Amino acid sequence: MRSAAMAFLLFALPAAAADLPPGRAAELERLVLQDCGSCHGLTLKGGLGPDIRAGTLAGTPPESLAHIVLQGVPGTPMPSWHPLLNEAEAQWIAEFLLKGGAP
Amino acid sequence: MTRFIAAGMLFLTICFTVWINTVLADTLRATGDLGVVVERSTGSLLIVDQSERAAIGRIEGLGDLSHASVVFSPDQRFAFVFGRDGGLSKVDLLTQTVAGRVLQSGNAIGGAISDDGALVAVSNYEPGGVRVFDAETLEMVADIPTGSKTIGLVDAPARRFVFTLWEAGETWIADFSRDEPEITRIEGIGKNPYDALITADGRHYIAGLFGEDGLTALDLWQSPPLPRRILGGYGRGEKALPVYKMPHLEGWALAGERFVLPAVGRHEVLWVDARSLEETGRTKTHGQPVFAVSRPDGRQVWVNFAHPLNDTVQVIDTPSGEVIHSLKPGPAVLHIEFTPRGHEVWVSVRDAGRIDIYDTHSFEKLGEIAAETPSGIFFTARAHRTGL
After folding, report:
1. Min Cα separation A31/chain B (Å)
2. Measured between alpha carbons, how far is B191 from B216 in angstroms, rounded to an integer?
3. Do the Cβ atoms of B33 and B50 come closer than 8 Å?
4. Is the residue at A38 inside a domain?
5. Among all residues of chain A, which has the CA nearest to that of B151?
6. What is the average pLDDT value for chain B, to the nearest integer?
7. How many domains does chain A have?
8. Which of A20, B42, B117, B294 lies deepest, with the highest CB count within 10 Å?
9. What GO annotations for molecular function exist for this entry (chain A) (predicted)?
């Protein structure tokens, strides 16, 4: 019973928030706005890369977004961020984008 | 007696004129050693004085200035600022006010001013194309839809603008020397051209390709210019690294008899013979180059790098092609601008909120200026250079 409750708790916790070391969220937020912003625009409404504002992404599963962040999109300038970000960080970014830039 | 009075009056008039000119000279300001720094997050522009190595004012309310760029009027009084959100702002450096502003598209990427200073053109992602404005009034004088994201917009001699289509792989030349603009379309530039430059003499237009290893050169002295692939397959089958920031091709001059170009997805710069456009060598660098800018005399090339190696700047000696100095100004070095004669270089360090100023001969740091997330630095000397 106890382990079932634990499992439920773990499942309910957003993976990203639990796994990020202190200060990393702020770094990722800056990365999204400033570095992703090179292609997607500082307001994320798109540029060379597409619009990635929450309204546009609505309905996309966070796992799919995290996958795109980590693997990139072949045939486009979207690079694989796998060498620089781990899965928890990609997941955090996916949820950050879906929430419209509120950490 | 009358003659005495007349002489006295004349003397007083001269005294007054001298006095008023002295007063005016103290309050008048020339713009030849001014510049602007884009503050990308706050949508503001810092006006800087090269001689004082200081900021002398700030203009706010210019919209989304991520990836913003600036050109200057021929009298070096007005800065035209091209914002990411499609805003075109005309800033008066003397009165430090916004002299005009239009929101000309939804999503823009740079601009240019015609050789006579009469027309300002803006390159747009959405809707894709180029729009041209009267530099005086900012009224639109031409709309050139391309159906493609438009990049690498530069001015060329004889009232022309040249730009390239990201999706279509074409370069267009828009000739404004007559009443109606005349467009020349050149196909076969290559897959996904990401940026382009024009050489300082206005002769060669070179587009960098993202979709393939190589660049495409056009000789604008030909009519019509025929695309010529240069440095084809420079990666030679090696797997390119992920590109976290596109290199930039604007803003450099000849380095001796050679050009230097950033390689895409590689930790190196490529040297190209200016006459034959053949590769003459490579220099390994700290990271993927973003800007590779020649000092105005061509003796050195300064290079900054893409995320995550963007805290470093390297200096390459042109004759030997060797890295002779490395500096670590701080997190996120975004841009490098030389003073017109190259004695100093100004470097924007975005995440440190600073502009650092270095002596280019001794590499000694001469000063710093606080700025909000600074990106592009633009000195007014650009007003007198083709392609800037």
Report:
1. 10
2. 10
3. yes
4. yes
5. A48
6. 91
7. 1
8. B294
9. electron transfer activity; heme binding; metal ion binding
Is B244's CB within 8 Å of A35's CB? yes
Residue where a domain stops, chosen among B204, B230, B256: B230
- Give yes or no: residues B153 and B279 share one domain: no
Chain B residue with minimal CA distance to A46? B107
Which of A4-8, A63-67, B29-33, B214-218 shows the lowest mean pLDDT across its residues? A4-8
DSSP B245: S
Give the chain B residue whose CA is nearest to the CA of A71: B242
CATH code (residue A93): 1.10.760.10
Residues of A with CB under 8 A from a CB of B: 30-31, 33-35, 37-39, 41-43, 45-48, 72, 77, 79-81, 83-84
Neighbours of B370 (CB within 10 A): 11
Q: Is residue B176 part of a domain?
A: yes
Write out the residue range of the structural domain in which residue A55 sits: 22-98
Of B84, B243, B244, the CB nearest to A47: B84
Distance CA(B219)–CA(B248), nearest Å, equals 20
Cα distance between residue B108 and residue B24, in whole Å:
40
Nearest residue of chain B to residue A81 (CA atoms): B242
- Number of folded domains in chain B? 2
In this structure, what CATH number is given to the domain that contains residue B344? 2.130.10.10
B242 vs A: CB within 8 A:
yes
pLDDT digits (tens, 9 = 90+) for B143-193: 999 999 999 999 999 999 999 999 999 999 999 999 899 999 999 999 999
Asked whether residue A10 is assigned to any structural domain, the reply reads no
Interface contact B240, partner A, CB < 8 A: no
Print the domain residue range for B155. Answer: 46-230
Q: B310 and B344, same structural domain?
A: yes
Based on the domain organization, do B226 and B251 belong to the same domain? no
Interface test with B, best of A30, A44, A48, A93 (most B CBs within 10 A): A48
Q: B148 at the A interface (CB within 8 A)?
A: no
Report if residue A3 sits inside a domain.
no
For the beta carbon of residue B59, count every other beta carbon within 10 angstroms.
Answer: 21
Nearest chain B residue to A80 by CA distance is B242
Q: Is the pTM of the predicted complex or chain greater than 0.80? A: yes
**Residues with Cβ < 8 Å from B37, sequence gap 6 or more?**
B45, B46, B48, B55, B348, B355, B369, B371, B374, B375, B376, B377, B378
Q: Do B335 and B223 share a domain, yes or no?
A: no
Partner-chain contact A72 B245, CB within 8 Å: no
With CB atoms and an 8 Å threshold, state whether A42 touches B41: yes
Looking at residue B127, its amino acid is: P
Query: In the structure encoding, which two tokens stand for residue B255, read together?
Result: 């380095």
Residues B84 and B222 in one domain: yes
Q: Is residue A1 part of a domain?
A: no
Residue type (1 letter), A75: G
User: Is the ipTM of this structure higher than 0.90?
Assistant: no
Cβ–Cβ below 8 Å for A34 and B64 = no
